[in-house]
Every structure is written in C-alpha cells, then in structure tokens.
Amino acid sequence: MAAPGDEEGAEGPRCHRRPTAMLDVPFLPFCAFLGTLGLLCVAMVGAWCQHWRGGFSLDGSSRTFNWHPVLMVTGLVVLYGAAALVYRIPNTWSGPKLPWKVLHGSLALGAFVLSVLGLAAVFRFHNSQGTPNMYSLHSWMGLATVLLFSCQWAAGFGAFLLPWAPAWLRALYKPIHVFFGSSILMLSVASCVSGINEKLFFSLKNGTTAYKLLPAEAVFANTLGLLILIFGVLVVGALARPSWKRPDSDSPDSRQ
C-alpha cells in the first residue's frame, strides 16, 4: 500500500505534464492556420492597392508602384516564410533529403525573384517621376534585406545542394544558415511594415483625410501591417520550437 505522500508525488508531475500536453499544438493545423494568414496578407495588400491606390499598371505611374508592396509581401514575407518551414513538415523527417532541399531552394528562389521584381517596380516609378532613390530608412533596410537574402540563397545552394560540399562544411554552415534565415524574415517584416507606414504618411495628406484622423484606408493598412508582423513572429516561433525541428540523423537514407 503506497503512502499518501507517494500518491501525491506521483500525481503532482502527472498534473504538471497535462497542461503542457494540452498546449502542444500539432504542426499541420498550425501550418494550415499560418497559410491562411499568409494568403490573407497577400489578399489585403492587393485589395489596398486596388481599392485605395488606383490599381496596377506598368506605365511608370503610381499604379506601377503598387506592384512593389504586393510583390514584396508575397515574396519576401509569405513565400519566404513557407520556404523556411519546409523542414518542419513531419514527412521530411525520414527518407532522402534531396526533394525537400529542392523544394526549399525553389520556394526561396521564387521569393527572391518576386522581391527583385518588386524593387524594379519602385525604381521604375521613382525614375519616371523624378523622385530620388534610396533616401529613406525603409529603402535602406529593404535593399539590405534583399542583398542579404541573395547571399543567403547562394551560400545555401553551394553548401547544401551542390554535391562537392564536404560534410564538415555543411555542419559548420548549417547554424549560420538557420540564424540568417530567421533574421532575414524579421528584416523582411520590418521592411514591409515600415513601407506601409511610409506610404500612408505620403498619401494621406493634401486632398485626403489626414493619417492622424485614421481614415478607413489607414485602419485597413495598419491592420495589414499587424497581420504581417504576426505572420513573421509565428514563423520564427515555429522555427525555434524544438519539437518541430527535423531530427538529425546519420543514416545513409537520410543524407544526400
């Protein structure tokens, strides 16, 4: 017959573990929610530019500029976030890594291409309107993010996809690659949020309701900025969660 103290001691840890298990969100439902949030961000930035900013064009006018926020949010935040989470999918934890490496690299490359097109749109608009380029903190941060992203992709391609990279080099570079992956995502979020705020300051002034009076466009765009921030934080949180990380394995069928 067990002593009361033993029963309490056995029950204590059991009660302590139960709330932890209840808070353990499965990855796939979380990923579905995150995907919905990302699509919502893309839809909202498109609706903002179409409804309040006049739509889209390639004629060098402000409608050409409107491609810039859409492409940046889609590529530099949403698609890049999807690329970062590829190795958190449980199906990637066994079998060959090469197909998942290709998927990860392809999503990141797609994000980079969209980002470059977004930069081209804003430079075309500035040049056609006689507006100076690269004068704001937003522009500095955005260009630095894209340049860092290009270096990250090239280094990752050379270290993990090309067959001649030695195992010790991959092991040495992997934590650096992971660190800069999360850092670039947060820089992307900061660039997009600052760009939304800058656009509102420039647009909501003469002839419109001032930004400080919080018109409907300001409410909509501010909400978009918050959703982008939440998306980035959730992706970084998922990357940092130990139970969702791909377990390292030295088995021959898990290495390429």
TrEMBL record:
**Any idea where the Cytochrome b561 domain is?**
33-240
| Segments traversing the membrane | 27-49, 70-90, 102-125, 137-164, 176-197, 218-240
Pfam families, per the entry:
Cytochrom_B561
Gene3D superfamilies (alphabetical)? 1.20.120.1770
Q: Which InterPro entries match?
A: CYB561/CYBRD1-like (IPR043205), Cyt_b561/ferric_Rdtase_TM (IPR006593)
Catalytic activity annotation = Fe(3+)(out) + L-ascorbate(in) = monodehydro-L-ascorbate radical(in) + Fe(2+)(out) + H(+)
Task: Determine if Transmembrane is one of this entry's keywords.
Answer: yes
* PROSITE patterns associated with the record: CYTOCHROME_B561 (PS50939)
Q: GO CC terms on record? A: late endosome membrane; lysosomal membrane
Give the record's membrane topology: Multi-pass membrane protein
* Gene Ontology molecular function: metal ion binding; transmembrane ascorbate ferrireductase activity
The protein's role, per its UniProt record: Transmembrane reductase that uses ascorbate as an electron donor in the cytoplasm and transfers electrons across membranes to reduce iron cations Fe(3+) into Fe(2+) in the lumen of the late endosome and lysosome. Reduced iron can then be extruded from the late endosome and lysosome to the cytoplasm by divalent metal-specific transporters. It is therefore most probably involved in endosomal and lysosomal cellular iron homeostasis.
According to UniProt, the name of this protein is: Lysosomal membrane ascorbate-dependent ferrireductase CYB561A3
What is the organism of origin for this protein?
Eulacestoma nigropectus (wattled ploughbill)
